[in-house]
Amino acid sequence: MIKPVLARRLIYPLHERLLKRPTFSYLAELERSQWLPRSGVQRLQERKLAGLLKSAYVHCPWHQARMNATGIDPDGPVSLEELRLLPTMDKQDAVAHGDQLVWHDVPGGAFKYNTGGSSGQPLIFYYGRRRQASDAAGRMRARRWWGVQPGDPEVYLWGAPVELDKTDWIKSLRDRLINQLVLNAFEMSPATMDEYAQAIQAFQPHCIYGYASSLALLAAHLLDRKTGLHLPKLRVVCTTGEPLFDYQRQLIGAAFGSPVANEFGSRDIGFTAHETPEGQMLLMSESIILEVLDEQGQPVPPGETGEAVMTALESFAQPFIRYRTGDMVRVADESCRAGRGLDVITEVLGRSTDFVVRADGAIMHALALIYVLRAVAGVGEFKIVQHTLRDIEVLVVPDASWQESGRVEIETGLRKRLGGDIHIDLRLVESIPAEASGKHRHVVSRVALSDGLKAATQVPIN
Q1: Which residue ranges form the domains of the chain, and what is each CATH number?
Q2: Which residues share a beta bridge with 283?
Q3: What is the pLDDT of residue 161?
Q4: Beta strands per DSSP E along 280-432
Q5: Which of 47, 136, 309, 455 has the fewest CB atoms within 10 Å around its CB?
Q6: Overall average pLDDT of the 103-114 stretch
Q7: Cα–chain-centroid distance for residue 41?
Q8: Where are the beta strands (DSSP E) in 131-227?
């Protein structure tokens, strides 16, 4: 392992500079701006908003037309109240007008990406280096709230192909040099989880980071096996990707002997909020303007639940301006208990996902299958149901770009994940109904976990 101080002061900053990401300068800005009063943070938001709107006007015809229609002056200051003159946008708008939204020549380059598709509606979009720096620096600052510095050893229980499929020596060396250990959340058989426990014990992380449900599954396994980990340097376990329920927090805390902090974010908007040691979820207000709106598009009073509508202030490559995320949140009418000027989020009601089980007993986060569907052109919406270990039902609402070759891509990808002998019933449908409960679950597994792991899949009581 590299000495953390060397990773923090030399290797990690050099890595970011080589990639032309201003991560550490952005981090320095965040360390200062978080202590501004709320009014100072709002002035900062308005300055950044003016720059984003001007850029969007010049480089993105769809946003230009919307601004012209509402009379917003792209060369003048824009208040948060004036921002609300613009209509909201949603994922369908981003899909339908993608060519008119992207600034391909953004400084540092525009990079193609996909949303995870946990909403059942994948999205291809573009991001730039400044947006990457915002995400990375926001997480670094949040880690510092818990006493974890950049370059300190971190374990990632993760499953995104971009992190796990690129096994070339450069990627492996990069992880090693900045003290990151990646464990695959898509390969969690009991034997593999035993290996993960040994790896975590040997690595002695200061932070563990991963999907809430995957960390709860590993925690349930450790407690069932009575595997006692001794991690004296562990400061926090950070969960992400889905809601963190109280029973999961208790499981994870008991297994790892550490506080548990939840994170809120998305691929399209980026890192959004993180929990503090004082128990509050703080918005990354320097990079995101959050509105909480009711069904009629009107702001709800503080403390009431509404849809999170976000303006990503660093989304220059493809601006997300007044973007309806589909997540339901509550914003508190209170201040940060540690004195920061950042907005406080009381509750995030995101989307939870099931596990799926392979025939050999390996347990995978539902994203293992979601990533297959999101990579196929023409998939407008989808739902996957695992009825048995070898019986998979796939419903697809196709869009205009659907080709029958997509059927082969989906079936091939699912067999790579679940085994070549599975039966796949793939049907094209006009719409996908909600569950009997009224909720939309886009990956459902009817396969029960073993008794020792059922503690990780309790049904939360609302």
Answers
A1: 355-457 (3.30.300.30)
A2: 273
A3: 55
A4: 281-283, 288-293, 305-312, 323-331, 344-349, 355-357, 363-365, 379-388, 391-398, 423-428
A5: 47
A6: 90
A7: 24
A8: 154-158, 180-184, 207-211
